[in-house]
Automatic annotation (TrEMBL):
Belongs to the AfsR/DnrI/RedD regulatory family. It holds the Pfam family Trans_reg_C. Gene3D superfamilies: Tetratricopeptide repeat domain, Winged helix-like DNA-binding domain superfamily/Winged helix DNA-binding domain. It comes from Streptosporangium amethystogenes subsp. fukuiense. Residues 1-87 bind DNA. Residues 1-87 form the OmpR/PhoB-type domain. PANTHER family: TRANSCRIPTIONAL REGULATOR REDD, TRANSCRIPTIONAL REGULATOR REDD-RELATED. This is BTAD domain-containing putative transcriptional regulator.
Amino acid sequence: MRFGVLGPLRVLDGDRDLTPGPAKHRALLAALLLRRGQVLTVDRLIAEVWGEEPPASAEPVLRVYVSALRKVVDGIRTVPGGYLLDVDPDQVDAHRFERLVSAGRRARDAGRTAEAADELRAALALWRGPALAGIDSGPLRRAYAVPLEELRLTALEERVELDLALGRGAELTGELRALVAAYPLRERAWGQLMLALNQAGRRPEALSVYQEARRLLIDELGLEPGAELREAHERVLARDASPRAVPNEMPPDVVDFTGRERVLDWIRGAVPTAGSAPVHLVLHGPAGAGKSAMAIHAAAALDFPDGRLYASLRARTPGAVLEDLLRSLGCPQGAVPTEPAERARLYRSMVSGRRLLVVLDDAVDEAQVRPLLPTGPGCLTLVTSRSPLLGLEAARARELDVFDPGESVAMLARVVGEQRVRAEPQAAARIAVLCGGLPLALRIAGSRLARRPDWTLRHLAGRLEDERGRLDELSAGDLAVRSSLALGYHALSDRERLLLRRLGALSAPDFAPWAAAAVLGAPADRLLEALAEAGLLQARGLDAAGQERYGWHELTRLYAAERLDGEEGTSGQVLAAAGREILDRTRRARALLLPAEPGSGQTLVHTAEQVMALATTQFRESARWLAAERGFLVATVVDFQRTGLDEAAWRLAFYLTPFFELGAHHEDWRMAAEIGLRAARRMGHRHGEALLLRSMADLYRARGHLVAAAEALQRALSLAEAGEVARTRHRLGLVHLARGRRQEAEACFVACLTAFSAAGDQRGRADALRALGGLRRAEDLLVRSLAAYRELGDPRGEAAVSLDLAGLLLDRRCPAEARERAERGLGLLRRLGDRLPEAAGLVVLARVAMAEGRPDVARGAAEGALGTFREHADRRGAAQALLTLAAALLDLDEIDGAVDAITSSMGEFDVLGDRHGLAGAEELAGEVRRRRGLRL
């Protein structure tokens, strides 16, 4: 049975509507429902049903009403002094609403934004109208309807805030318009409407909303807008549609955490006050002592207003960890510096004004930790490591030792259940002794008991006693971990043990089921679930590609590797067998990123519609898969090279190159390419060495290290096979062009075109035609390149050449034709989701608008492009956008704005060493001087 008070009273039993008809019956039932589980006195019910002047017969009549309701509603009980309704709270929509709101707020506080929004949305969906609509009871309405309505409005605003954080502003504008119309004095709703409009790209409307709200507040209340509405206005003016995110990356707290009160007190006592010097704490101890659990549990109880960051260090470089931390702090992906030293400087800058808690888990040494320490006043760092990190300056260290007997038994009880431990106290104490007080061993032993309710604790203690050498190992440091893991391992089925052993060949911290299937040679989904239930793996949820991911403790992985070597073979043998699947999947993903590359088998002819449908879907699926598997594949490059599988190592590193380039994952790119290059050289594979040198050159060019790029390509040319010489020379031409060596660049492009045409390499031919056409400003070459890209089914190449042609047509004063080309290219890029190329297209479109005499349109396009370039820290693009914006402002007679834009562009061009760009800025500055006599 279900009851509703969030709207007209409703009683439903399945599909039957049992809502009482008489008004007094409805008021009585509403009073009981709103206080379900509570005793309501007769006097209280009389007051709420009849009000301040009840009839003399109210008490006997009330009994009649109760009797009538009992025929409809189960659970109404007579108790001393009154009545009580005993129903599940989820049967009453008001109680369910409050529970869902609380759940949403907990998810929000834990950093689970999407989940929080869904919980609040589900709560709000329960409302069918005003609370207690049709219930004629003033006391009930004052006590419950008004607070419920206020909670509904607050929950609605909180859900809108979460949706804004998720970038859903365009979907919210209609809802928020209705909200401010219904509640015109709620400033928070006005501010949210402004931010939603700004997110939807309707900035002028957002600014006009502020003026509307301000006028209303002054007219109705005589007050200026409050701080929250003013802040929203400032963010719109600054083009920031969302508040600064407060990251909360702490893993879930350990539910069976036990003891450690002294350590917790030590951590709590070390928390710095706001404005005081940052504090760095190191928790160290043997493997399995619970260092990570300790840090996470302590962090869960500490409140830091600007967020809590978490990083699992292991063997990762500080540069790679800094990349993740910067993005967590809100740095856009394209704005993360490529050099580790620059990342460290930006990190210190971003944390300097924030009070943060940072947990750095499983540190190897001091050098790994130093660049990651926050420097802001009031910040706290918790570092876990096997070493005390004595060389870490200004850090306080504390050793985390094993549990004493009492703590060991208490932890076992929390895992297994208090009742089972109380029933066999001696067996519980014996298990604690056999586990040596090591938390990891106790947790594994307890998990086995929890999974086997038919086992007695005495039975498990006997199993521990009987294991050969188990006692010595359980009482000796790392050997204790090994022995505890063996307990779980021997309880597995043959197939489960086989999978666990073979997973030991992988060094990646997590993996998807396809990778487990590759090492096993058979589907592994159910086996993974079994290993997760046994506590040997952890299910970590769905990744960006929709795959379930599994991770494990490093000690579990080491134990699995030992079992592999001892029972089956070497890691190299397992990786060699799995290598084909790993390489094939990565090669296929690469082929989708680079359609019709030689060897992809994708040189097909499609209609324009087919091209877009295929390219958009395939590119996005490939990009999602590679993003999800990036850590796994980079670790596998290392695994291949470590086990002597050099060919697999260099091929995997080469296959990943375009993904690294598109995602600006420079640190992973560098590491994988260097390892792949060493592997190719070690096996004397000239072709592989040439390809990896070419990859390194692409990385150097992306970082602006043009001399190094040229040197790498020259070495690659001396090693390249016939089919790759032209591709290498094409890249050398691009480097020459970037260095201003136009003659050398042209010679490279001409030679490449001849070679590609002779070899039937359609992609190479398209690339060479585009490069040569752009260099010579030759329309016929660009048109031929465009046709080649269309034939290949490559909309990204088609978009790039379309924009090249638009620029060329502008130079020839053909604005109508240029617009057609530019809009075509821009449309393709928008459907592909390529933001930086889209920004470049907007600059071209702005130039077209200028040629058509529409400087207002040019200004909007240039400003849009400038915002994207600055978000991604693209200085060259920003300089071009500024120059185009300056020209538009000049035509609009906004001289001061034009001067500012010209000055900014000059600064960018000067840093870049772009003489051509500086010349363009100087020419525009001359026009300003002509108009106003201004000297720049």
